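User: I'm preparing a small set of examples for a lab meeting where we compare how different chains pack in three dimensions. I only have the primary sequence for this one, and I'd like the structure in token form so I can line it up with the others. Please keep the answer compact; I'll paste it straight into my notes.
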Amino acid sequence: MVESSTAGPAQNDLKKSAQPLITVVIPAYNYAASLARAAQSILGQRDGQTELLIIDDGSTDATPDVIKALHMGYPEQFRSIRKDNGGLASVRNLGIREARGEWMVFLDADDEFMPAALGKLVAHIHAHPHSRLVVGEHISVNENGNRRRHKVGSIPDGGFERVKAYLLDKTLGLSNGACAMHRDVFEQGGYPEHFRNSEDLPVFAQALAQYPVSTLAEPLLLLYKHGDSLRHHVGHGQAVGTQVVNEVFSRLPAEMQSLRDDFYAQRCLSLFRSAYLAKDREAAKRYYSAALRHDWRLLLKTSYTRKAIRLWLGKR
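Assistant: Understood. Below is the structure token output for the 316-residue chain.
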């Protein structure tokens, strides 16, 4: 069930914002404590070229009350939708369908947009009309409040090299909230709703593979890292497991299929590490063995090999 609020753009902005350039979508599920901060980081700088859409994914905490208070504090300045719980991918897909803008930014409810970042993003899009994916910078904030700026760097020209840099080399990192995607990107497919983790990988991969990319060397996002964040949820990661490999490569052209085995092995190593840290011995052994079956040279990755030896010796 989907319930839309009656709130929309302010009446005196209606003509200017009837077809905004950018829609910022904030998915919210039980983030009452931080949702107002995320929303206000957009509402404080939005104009007729941008709109904000908050989607409550069936929250059971005070999230609906926070949204109601935001509507009272910012009357007719944003839209909100409440839906039955279906996971982050379902929220983002609904956001794509409901967005009025040609470009979309997905801002997590526990992060916030940098001051003046929307204006910089709008200016960049106007200056790069052929781009379909804008990759910006972000600043991560750990639980102690320490900040680190993550710069974009150079992005390879060809789709194959971009996908390799993203999936395998890890020299190209993309973060929701620090990226903007044109709706053309989603013609290849939306977010896989049967995933509760890693749902971004197929979408970012298809964008890098087949669409023009531009970079914005400005921090757009404050990304807050915390231990209970869904992005670190081991259970959801293992539920997805190696299914993400099939999902990613079903969307990539034939000339990129040669990267599949290496990505499978790397995915197994990632799952091994998360299971190891969660002290799930059997899962860790299973994923490490699967990785080695695909590529014995992974034994040369000493940080993983040391963990595996400790595991089999029963020291963890």
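A couple of notes for your slides: Confidence is low (pLDDT under 50) at residues 6-17. The CA atoms of residues 68 and 80 lie 9 Å apart.

User: Perfect, thanks.
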